Amino acid sequence: MDDAGVYKISNDIALVQTLDFFTPMVDDPYVFGQVAAVNSLNDVYAMGGKPLTAMNIACFPKNLDIEVLSLILKGGHLKIQEAGAILLGGHTVEDNEPKYGLSVTGIVHPERVITNAGAQPGQAIVLTKPIGTGIISTGIKRKVADSKSIDEAINVMTTLNDKASKAMVECDASACTDITGFGLLGHMLEMAEASNVTIELELSLVPILYGTLELAGKDIVPAGAKNNLKFVENKVGWQKNVDNTYKEILADPQTAGGLLISIDSKRVDEFINLLKEYGVEGHVIGKVIQPTDKNIIVEGK
Ligand code: CO
Ligand code: CO
Ligand code: CO
Known about the structure:
single chain, 2 domains, 5-stranded mixed sheet, globular
């Protein structure tokens, strides 16, 4: 599955449409609104598109202070504005647990749509944000995450992929997806399968959020990471001894994660420099090779 649906309406314009909403992963409703909005807007950026309009979708319990809902929506609106999009409306229903997200409509040139199916052998694989937000969110829920790891995770989750997307379009990236619920391995597997290639991932090059390794070492790991790992495990060739803690980190479900990009290796330095110019830290984490019996090969530490 690609991150968003694309519908061509003329030779110059295709619509990019997406919808995402979920339950809070942080305590602060204003921050939660921002994270949920970024997560939704990022699916348009993952296709190389530009968000134009957004609509709120929210669920809210009867017994909760309505001010909380207003803070969630305010946080979302902040990120819609930052993306240069316009909020057109939305809908809220009563539910036991709060939920929030956006339906976003964007545009892209029909010939410049970047899907997850374009990765080619010889290309470099780049990731634009560190991973670990699922593990740190679990640490927040269990009240064991320290303030530095919480701050860094929130910073990552409230950052739009707009600049990363702009840079990848300018450098003619071949394939892209954003890292969300299936974790780095799950989304990488989707790219490898859609592109009919194998991706070699270098574990030591993967950027990991501060505090993630410590929490994962104490088994503060969301059930989703374990499920993701089970799902991908036999499609991954684990070279050397990759510790189970690292396997779970690679499978950790992300919220509003970075872009995973496949790009011509001759242009990867230019791309990393352009990302830096835009204030985005890009990491080359692996390369694309001819298809093998495994979709992903993980080189150990
Ligand atoms: Co996505
Ligand atoms: Co999505
Ligand atoms: Co309505």
